[in-house]
Amino acid sequence: MWRSAARRSSLFRRLLSSSSSAAASYAPPAVYIVNKRGNDILNDPWYNKDTAFPMTERDRLGLRGLLPPRVTCFEEQYERFINSYRTLENNMQGEPDSTRVALAKWKDLNRLHSRNETLYYRVLIDNIEEFAPIVYTPTVGLVCENYSGLFRRSRGMYFTAKDKGEMMSMIYNWPADKVDMIVVTDGSRILGLGDLGVQGVGIPIGKLDLYVAAAGINPQKVLPVILDVGTNNEKLLEDKLYLGLRQPRLEGEEYLAIIDEFMEAVRARWPKAVVQFEDFQMKWAFETLERYRNRFCMFNDDIQGTAGVALAGLLGAVRAQGRPLHDFPNQKIVVVGAGSAGIGVLNKAKKATLKMGITEEGHNQFWVLDKDGLITKVREGLDPAVASFARGSGPNEIPDLHEGASLVEVVKKVKPHVLLGLSGVGGIFNEEVLKAMKESDSPRPAVFAMSNPTTKAECTPDDVFKHVGENAIFASGSPFSNVSLGNGKTGYANQANNMYLFPGIGLGALLSGARNISVGMLEAGAECLASYITDDEIKKGILFPPVSRHITAQVGAAVLRAAIAEDLAEGCDGVGPKELSTMSELETVDYVTQKMWYPVYHPLVSKK
Ligand SMILES: NC(=O)C1=CN([C@@H]2O[C@H](COP(=O)(O)OP(=O)(O)OC[C@H]3O[C@@H](n4cnc5c(N)ncnc54)[C@H](O)[C@@H]3O)[C@@H](O)[C@H]2O)C=CC1
Ligand SMILES: CC(=O)C(=O)O
Ligand SMILES: [Mg+2]
Q1: CA distance to 99, 404, 428, 454, 469, per residue, from 444 (Å)
Q2: Where is the Malic enzyme N-terminal domain positioned along the sequence (predicted)?
Q3: Kind and range of the H or E element at 367?
Q4: Is 282 in the pocket of ligand 1 (CB under 6 A)?
Q5: What is the pLDDT of residues 4-15, one digit of tens each?
């Protein structure tokens, strides 16, 4: 119960500052009861311990003779994996095709995932900075692009347009009794790679790997889902290896009927599961969010998670200039990309401005471009979500900034403090654009190249520090290395990715047992992230922390507390809203940390 955890809060504080915090705080069940024996256990990645089964267990579980005789410990297995991984790396040194290297690494990790989940997740948790770029962006993009060829073993669930009317029973085919976290996509906008149909399933798998590693969600209780409603990607439809439905995407009511049925099936079997919508094309991203946000415990990561991370970065850019946060409404921000992510960010940033006392009519700090250039009020057929950011005419406007003005024109004339890309167009912040950013009105011009994967990043940190100057601030959606500026100085390549928020949003929502995920809960998470970095770090140009269980616990606790404050919490695992509401801030962080799953081998007892 949480009370004992709360009493140990000073211990937790100490543990939280060490890297093995979650290991020490997670209270594991004494044994796992298995309904299997022999090879069935070795073939089940959840129970498999490979050569670490002790002799007593080998006897009990019918494993004697099925494994090499020497029993090895977990640490030895861990070392064996890391050594073989390093050998793979060494063998591939000098390989000119970086795609081959990335896929070889992913395959190595994926094989471990399929064989022994305990070892896999420990390796992932301990080396999250090194392995996140493989299980997540950028390599996950490559995996999705090549998924049909790479397919070996199914992971997650596939609901298709052909399953209409069947989903309510299909959902019971999933073997786990309880599911806490679901990440679902329809594959229609996978990173910046477009419509990848059923191959998009790699994204829910990658996101849920981060849920396990960074939020301590039990991997037995996660479910990656792809809703295959067809694809409009001609290349895939013609690819004989393609594993999805060979039909154009469903549209309109037919499409929504599939999503509705899936959501109702989830509710029927796991009413308390949190559902994260991921990589839906813009029209369905906004529509499904509005359709379900008040009825289910769900959120859209691209719209809402990204917005919180970007706002934290934008506020960091204000602090980096030595200016107070209430100066934010005076920051000129050029956003390139008016899709689900770009509009999500703009809405959030505008809301922050309004909170600082600026009126709806008075906000004047955003210039938004899409594929047709600067968006102004003369543009016809504007999506209402975009319309409120369209530039008009009048005394507040910069003369000559016409409808459809090019990016370089806009940057030259606006001299923005921040240039933020969510366009999915690699290299669009070219030399000319970045040189124009050098004339920014900010002493610390900020460039956020947030599109994924790496090939779609709007620019690189090398280009930014070269063309904008050493004072620039840089962040990207996919990871880049820091840049050496000479004289011992470093240009920091921050990663501005929703991965800092979504694990904490999901965890906080889950542990609060929230009926739905409110704006207040999302704001609490984002504010927590924004205040996480110290002034000293910000001055150096560091905007975000490394992804870790520590930051997730803080964000999760903030989200949980907001759910309590808004009376949305119904509690979880026997800890009710009343009990949750009596926890102090620190106790909530302790509680969240204590609830995180951590990979260790448990004794197995066979019921068979
Ligand atoms: N760093 C992060 O955490 C996140 C990054 N993203 C990335 O953001 C990108 C966009 O995602 P969504 O908004 O969902 O896509 P989307 O397809 O909804 O929107 C793309 C937008 O970019 C615009 N665009 C296309 N070409 C352009 C050009 N040449 N110049 C200016 N604008 C152009 C389009 O008109 C559209 O408004 C993707 O690459 C995705 O990976 C998305 C979510 C989170
Ligand atoms: C990071 C992410 O969610 C995206 O690029 O879509
Ligand atoms: Mg996404």
Answers
A1: 35, 28, 21, 24, 9
A2: 113-293
A3: strand 366-370
A4: yes
A5: 333 333 333 333
DSSP 391: B
> Any binding-site annotation on 444?
no
Question: Ligand 2, closest atom to CA 452?
Answer: 5
Is 279 annotated in a binding site? The answer is yes
Name the residue of 211, 423, 497 to mutate for ligand 2: max ligand atoms within 8 A of Cβ.
497
Ligand nearest to the CA of 424: 1
pLDDT score of 273 more than 70: yes
Q: Taking ligand 3, which is a single-atom ion, which protein residues have CB atoms under 5 Å away? A: 278-279, 302
* Range list of β-strands (E), 140-288: 157-160, 181-185, 222-228, 274-277
**pTM score of the predicted model:** 0.94
Three-state secondary structure readout of 440-506? CCCCCCEEEECCCCHHHCCCCHHHHHHHCCCCCEEEECCCCCCEEEECCEEECEEECCHHHCHHHHH
Q: Which residues contact 373 (CB under 8 A, 6 or more apart)?
A: 403, 404, 405, 406, 407
Q: Is 146 annotated as a binding residue?
A: no
HSE on the CB side for 99, CA within 13 Å?
A: 8
Over residues 163-186, the mean pLDDT reads: 98
Find out whether the beta carbon of 207 lies less than 6 Å from any atom of ligand 1: no
Position in ligand 1 atom list of the atom nearest CA 450: 1
Ligand 2 atom with the shortest distance to the CA of 305? 3
CA torsion through residues 373, 375, 376, 380, sign = positive
Return all residues near 401 (Cβ < 8 A) that are at least 6 apart.
Answer: 367, 374, 376, 391, 409, 410, 413, 414
The pLDDT of 201-205, averaged and rounded, is 98
How far, in Å, from the CA of 276 to the mean position of ligand 3?
A: 10
Residue type, 423: S
φ and ψ at 486, to 5 degrees? 85, 170
Tokens read off for 129:
């900075």
